[in-house]
Design goal:
Length: 195
């Protein structure tokens, strides 16, 4: 009976890893498309430089290769929970500013928000499999700085979307790393499929 449970858990983990990699790839593709639409509709220059954005989780990490599987999953989950709140705020602001005049941008934002929520749930499932339930959500995440003017808020949104695209890349990389046997990983390896 224990062998059957172990085999079932391994199959479930394999399925979750494979689907997670595909979800992250699809999300990155959709975020890149959304970035193009956002830049065009907001009247921004695609090459605009945006400094580190307050309240936005940064995908870059030092000593990435030394992280355990649990650390990777927990950091990803915290980031996607924050992005869920940030994108909801962006969607609300977009509706207030433009109303239904720019439905395409609103629909694209809503679609990416849905993907971010689904990916966060997916990460929670992986943590459950590890017998380490996901941490509780502590608040809805940081709101954008309220002292920003309209142009600065547009740049803030650009920074959010750029960093989300980076997180999608990191997430696929993290999930691929979880598929490899490694001494620091607390998750059993699973075979990955290409996105």
């Amino acid at each position: 009976m224990a062998a059957a449970d172990s085999s079932s858990a391994a199959l479930r983990r394999h399925d979750l890893c494979s689907r997670g990699i595909r979800l992250a790839g699809k999300m990155r593709s959709d975020v890149v498309d959304l970035l193009d639409t956002y830049v065009e509709r907001q009247g921004l220059d695609a090459s605009a430089s945006v400094a580190v954005v307050e309240g936005v989780p940064v995908a870059a990490v030092e000593r990435w290769d030394e992280q355990t599987g649990t650390q990777r999953l927990l950091e990803n989950l915290a980031a996607y929970r924050a992005f869920r709140a940030l994108l909801a705020q962006m969607l609300e602001e977009q509706r207030e500013q433009l109303g239904e005049a720019d439905a395409a941008l609103g629909q694209a934002l809503a679609a990416v928000l849905l993907q971010v929520s689904a990916f966060a749930y997916h990460l929670e499932e992986l943590l459950q499999l590890e017998s380490r339930g996901p941490p509780s959500e502590e608040g809805a995440g940081p709101p954008p700085p309220s002292h920003l003017g309209l142009f600065e808020r547009k740049l803030w949104g650009l920074g959010v979307l750029r960093e989300l695209a980076q997180w999608a890349v990191r997430s696929a990389r993290d999930l691929r790393q979880l598929t490899k046997p490694s001494p620091g990983s607390s998750l059993a390896p699973c075979r990955a499929e290409s996105p």
